[in-house]
Each structure stands twice: as C-alpha cells, then as structure tokens.
Design goal:
This protein has 303 residues and is an alpha/beta fold. It has 2 domains: 11-175, Nitrogenase molybdenum iron protein domain (Rossmann fold), CATH 3.40.50.1980; 180-299, 3-Layer(aba) Sandwich (Rossmann fold), CATH 3.40.50. The chain has helices at 2-22, 35-45, 68-76, 92-98, 131-148, 153-178, 196-202, 220-233, 247-258, 284-299; strands at 29-32, 50-53, 79-82, 104-106, 118-119, 122-123, 187-192, 205-210, 237-241, 264-269. The site of zinc ion (ZN) has 6 residues, from loops.
Length: 303
C-alpha cells in the first residue's frame, strides 16, 4: 500500500515537471530574428505576448548562423517575424523550413516595392532607418498579432496607433535637427552601407566602406576610391558600427593618411542591432536618437 502511494506521488511529480517544461507561459510566444523587430512587438503587444530576438545585441545579422537552440525556439513559436529582404542571409534555409509549420511574416511585406533602394537587383534590407518605412513594419506586426490573438484586437490597434505617432514625431524632430547641419557637412561614411534609407529620408549623402552586407571583403580598389572621395570632398569624420569589425574603417583611415589627409573617428553607430537590454540604448527610438546625436556632433566637430 505504502509503495503504491509513493508510486502515485512520483508519477504526479513527473507529470507536473513535464508540463512545466513544455508550457512555460500561456501567452503567445513571438520570436523575431533581430532586436529592432522585437522592439516593435514589445511596443504593440505589451505584456500580452512573450517576445524574444534570437540574435543577441551587437550581432551582425548578415553573418549570423542559427544555433540548435534557435531552431528549437523558432519551431516552438506561435508567430515569427523576420526582415524579408535577405538581411539574415545565413538563416534563409532555417526560416524557410520553419515557416512551413509556424505562422511567419516578413516585416517588409507591406512596404511599397518602388520605395526599396535596389543594388544589382537586390533590395537593401536596412529599411528601419527611415521611420516612415518602418511604420509599414508596425502595421505588419499589429495585423499578425490580431490574427493570432483576436480577443485583444483593440489593445493592439491602440498601441499600433500610438507607436506610429511616436515614430512620425521622431521623424519630424530628426529632420528639423539634421536640417541645421550645413549642406557641405551632410556626408556620412560608415563601415557598411546600412544608412542609405536614412540618407534618402533626410537628404544626406551616405557611403559605406563595405556594401549593403558584410559578407565580402572590401577590395583595395574600393578603399582607394573612397579615400579619393574623402580627400576631394574634404570629409573629416568617419563612424564605425557596433555590429561590424573596425578593420574596414582602419584601412580607409590609413589610405587617407597615405594621401596626406586625416580622418577622425567620430563615434560608434548602432546600425543593425539595438544595445543591451536594460541599457540606455535598448530600443529603436533610443538608438535612433543616439545615432542622431553622434552623427550631428561628429560632423560639426562638437563631440
Ligand atoms: Zn547591415
């Protein structure tokens, strides 16, 4: 009798522990590829879903490969968001497989095709640095949340509207601040071409030492050509990025010095990733303002 009693308790404990492992939360689980997309989900869904970006802060999305843990997270999600313009080039096959089982959306799907910056038939994926383009991503996230959790439609729609209003205000404020910079200073040189939507939105010329992804090594020829541009245009200032190694900017600086010029490192920009969660730069709006301060102070030589 006693043995049987122990057996029943043990069985109950096993069942309890299995249940807790399989089901961590009753909320829908949303997985995103990168931190900027996760930030939209947090703004629109609040506490109504759990959200996690599989890429940690500071990671280069062009180079990121899925771990076994990422594959498990993606397969266990209720909803997945990714960029959709090959930003996460090395996750392509994993995302393709997962989207057969899990509802998945590319956050660029509502953006007008003719608004993409295209290079060699490939759309530039760094759409987030034009807040007016990023608004379409907010619409996409809100629609998908309503689809998986219609009971909270009003809540998601209200947050969608508020967040869009905030970003449009951010856009207006940024435009006003950037317009104060003299025309001849409005040139932004960074490690890779992540800021072309920013340049188009605010009338700045943008040049990256590497192209719109970080996969290929930069050629000596392109470094030399950029160094010539720096000399010709009298550019004084370059910026590195948190998610890209500094070596391409170091090579450019060395080429400019070899030509008798000088190039100052004017700060580190957040291009393809947010900062660490809980820091001063852990949201889209915060990195946008941080980048703006760094760029303006840098080119005006006021940092
Ligand atoms: Zn990039």
């Amino acid at each position: 009798m006693f043995t049987r009693y122990i057996y029943i308790i043990a069985l109950a404990l096993i069942l309890c522990s299995c249940t807790s492992v399989v089901k961590k939360s009753d909320k829908p689980a949303v997985i995103t590829t990168n931190s900027m997309i996760a930030d939209i989900v947090r703004n629109v869904a609040g506490e109504f879903v759990t959200v996690e970006s599989i890429m940690p802060p500071g990671i280069d999305p062009h180079q990121y490969k899925a771990s076994e843990g990422d594959v498990v997270k993606l397969a266990g999600a209720d909803l997945i968001f990714h960029n959709g313009l090959s930003l996460e080039g090395k996750l392509g096959k994993v995302l393709e497989r997962t989207q057969k089982q899990v509802l998945s959306y590319p956050i660029t799907q509502y953006m007008p095709r003719d608004q993409f910056i295209v290079d060699m038939n490939t759309p530039d994926p760094h759409v987030w640095f034009d807040p007016q383009m990023w608004v379409y991503a907010i619409n996409c996230v809100a629609d998908a949340l309503v689809q998986i959790d219609p009971a909270n439609t009003l809540y998601y729609r209200k947050n969608e509207e508020t967040y869009i209003r905030e970003l449009l205000q951010l856009n207006e404020n940024s435009k006003a601040r950037l317009d104060t910079v003299p025309m001849n200073k409005r040139i932004l040189i960074t490690s890779h071409n992540a800021f072309r939507y920013f340049g188009r939105a605010y009338g700045w010329e943008v040049l990256g030492v590497q192209g719109m992804n970080t996969n290929s090594e930069t050629s000596v020829y392109s470094i030399q050509a950029l160094a010539d541009t720096v000399m010709r245009r009298g550019v004084e200032c370059v910026f590195t990025e948190t998610s890209v190694p500094y070596r391409s900017i170091e090579a450019l600086t060395a080429s400019v010095i070899a030509l008798g010029g000088n190039l100052k490192h004017c700060g580190v920009l957040y291009s393809d990733s947010l900062g660490v969660a809980g820091s001063d730069i852990d949201s889209y709006e915060k990195i946008f303002e941080y980048n703006l301060d760094t760029i303006i102070n840098g080119v005006l030589n006021e940092q």
